[in-house]
Amino acid sequence: MIRVLSDENVHADIVSGLRQEGFDLVTAVDLGLTGRKDIEILDYAEKNDLLLLSGDKDFGGLIEFGSLWGMGRVLLLRYQILNVRKIVEDIARTLRSENENLSQSGCFVIVLSESGYRMRRPNP
Fold this sequence. Notes:
The structure is a single chain. By secondary structure, the protein is an alpha/beta fold. It has one domain. 36% of the residues lie in helices and 21% in strands. The protein has helices spanning 12-20, 38-47, 58-64, 84-97, 99-103, and strands spanning 4-6, 25-27, 51-54, 73-77, 108-113, 116-120. The chain has a six-stranded mixed sheet with strand order 2-1-3-4-5-6, with helices on both faces. The longest helix has 14 residues, at 84-97.
């Protein structure tokens, strides 16, 4: 199963729920990455084979158009309403159903919202 790095903007109850679901998850706070630049957090995740979980849409841009083009794996949360139980269930279901894709090398951005998810891979 994929290992996850939760950005500091992810609600603590979501982190707790994912841990209860059995996911191997560390947080930016756990690792002393609080307040670091987005690029540093994504670089850490990439170097340590972690999927970055964040609500910060800047990460998608860093992978698709920025200095980390072609690197990293990010799951972006784009929910309008904070329903922790639903968000945890959606993340767990998405990670489990995409486990094979997530285990492959390469980069991608998964955008997850109330309406479902979509996976984007930057064009070569």
